[in-house]
Amino acid sequence: MEEFANQIRDYYEDPLAALAKQFMFRRPPTVGELRRPAQVLLLGNHSSGKSTFVNHLLGDNVQNTGVAPTDDGFTIITHGATATERDGPAVVSNPDLPYEGLRYFGDQLVSHVRLKLRPAELLQRVTLIDSPGMIDEAKAENGRGFDFPGVVRWFAERADLVMVFFDPDKPGTTGETLQVFRESLAGIDHKMLIILNKVDQFQSLHDFARAYGALCWNLGKVIPRKDLPMIYNTFIPLPDKPKSRLPMEDFEKARNDLIGELRRAPTRRMDNQITQIQAYAERLRLHAMVINKAADKFKSIRARWRGFLLLLFGGLGAAAVGTGMVVALPGIGLAAVLAFSLIEYIILRRTKRRLISRFDQIFEHLHDQELLVRDRADDLRMMWEEISPRAREIAEKSGLQSFEKMSWHKREHLDELTNELIPQLRSKLHDAMRDSDAPAPALEQDRPATFPASEPRRPLVEGDRSAKPKRRTFF
User: Fold this and answer.
1) Angle, nearest 10°, between helix axes 408-416 and 265-322?
2) Which of 51, 297, 382, 414 is the most exposed place for a label (fewest CB within 10 A)?
């Protein structure tokens, strides 16, 4: 895996970092962000069992638990030789930690961030991020004092696995939960696991079926897919808790399967990094090519105007000298200054605004061939809609004249990276994973207690389920 990690870092360094700086695109991930352990983000309604799951994983009471909301901040739990804690300002200001980006959400968010170090074996390979329980009302900024959906999106984009917990009392019905699915988790369903927790509270299959169906109904409103993701149905065993009348064996296997997915997060991480660099490179390519085309056009128009004025007033000056009308030279010089000022401060500024307003047309022209392919057209337009506001803002503030022209070599290198090198790297990774694994077909007793969301009314606890083959961890 180190070979793939080094290759990804090399691609970021050349050509992506240089082009990002040249066209003022967002910076690529730092070395610290690329080298960090795998991250698992835990989301869910309050009292859905996130913190209890963390304590079960680590075999220690790391997080406070309770029926009422017990935590209103984000807790980053990672490995340390001794059990210590650090507050938010110390976390976001540490250059060795990959959380500097959180400071842009404001001091209120930073004060709600904590780092906990624990000497647990699992934390050597996986960092857990526990989040505040989601609440019923989705007011402006959720009454938290910071952009909660934005912060969730920030963590989710960087996580290698996102676990979303629901409980029987609130199966996906809170306003904040629905808002997070719409605004924060869109486009990352490939690394999201949905868990219906606390199934040991059910005393009958009827109660289980009602909660499961309600969860599927609510998820169907916020996940734009024909088939919803699989839902893990499980529980965390606690002492002195009343036992359910339902058979628990399959739900226990589902819990073990869920923990197995979490332990495979380091393997997911390399694949996620390739996905991340592919997305970064494609967006940088769109951003740079549109700005480069507009800047090239602007500089061409400016050069023509300057050439015209130079010829005009140079000719007038030469004529004045040739005819002995030297006294006219100051007037010609003043007229030249006024004309150059008119061109620079009025005509060229209007030209710049017109070119920036035509970014969409420039994008369509540059990618006219690719846009003929339907699937590719949808992806390109989605990416352009995502980055175009920022591209316009940068062009307006910096001026099109400030961008150095992209060389043919850089453009060819960028095209090769997005179209050939990164897809080849992903193919090599999958080959390496396949060669390293020789999993036997999953036995029936190893299958997880999960249910297809498209069939919410089937309250079965066994059968009709498929399991992912177990794979060895590569780190």
Assistant:
1) 160
2) 382
d(CA 50, CA 52): 5
Strand partners, 53: none
CA angle 424, 426, 431 (to 5 degrees): 95
Going from the N-terminus, what domains does the chain have, and what CATH number goes with each?
36-263+438-451 (3.40.50.300), 278-434 (no CATH)
Residue indicated by tokens 């088939």: 227
- pLDDT tens, 105-128? 999 999 999 999 999 999 999 999
Strands 84-87 and 113-118: antiparallel
- In sequence order, the β-bridge partners of residue 164 are 43, 194
**Closest listed residue to residue 74, CA positions, set 116, 147, 129:** 129
Query: Cis before residue 15, ω within 30 degrees of 0?
Result: yes
Is this structure's pTM higher than 0.85?
no
State the Cα–Cα distance between residues 171 and 145, nearest whole angstrom. Answer: 26
pLDDT at residue 374 is higher than 70: no
Q: Which percentage of the chain shows pLDDT scores above 90? A: 34
* Pair 280, 28: CB distance under 8 Å: yes
Closest to 305 in 3D by CA, of 391, 401, 397, 405:
401
Residues 424-470 have pLDDT tens digits of: 998 888 888 777 653 433 333 333 334 333 333 333 333 343 444 43
CB atoms within 10 A of CB 38: 22
- As a three-state string, the secondary structure of the chain is CHHHHHHHHHHHHHHHHHHHHHCCCCCCCCHHHHHCCEEEEEEEECCCCHHHHHHHHHCCCCCCCCCCCCCCCEEEEEECCCCEEEEHHHHHCCCCCCCHHHHHHCHHHHCCEEEEEECCCHHHCEEEEECCCECCCCCHHHHCCCCHHHHHHHHHHHCCEEEEEEECCECCCCHHHHHHHHHCCCCCHHHEEEEECCHHHCCCHHHHHHHHHHHHHHHHCCCCCCCCCCEEECCCCCCCCCCCCCCCHHHHHHHHHHHHHHHCHHHHHHHHHHHHHHHHHHHHHHHHHHHHHHHHHHHHHHHHHHHHHHHHHHHHHHHHHHCCCHHHHHHHHHHHHHHHHHHHHHHHHHHHHHHHHCHHHHHHHHCCCHHHCHHHHHHHHHHHHHHHHHHHHHHHHHCHHHCCCCCHHHHHHHHHHHHHHHHHHHHHHHHHHHHHCCCCCCCHHHCCCEECCCCCCCCCCCCCCCCCCCCCCCC
Alpha-carbon distances, residue 4 vs 124, 270, 370, 383, 434 (angstroms): 20, 8, 29, 26, 15
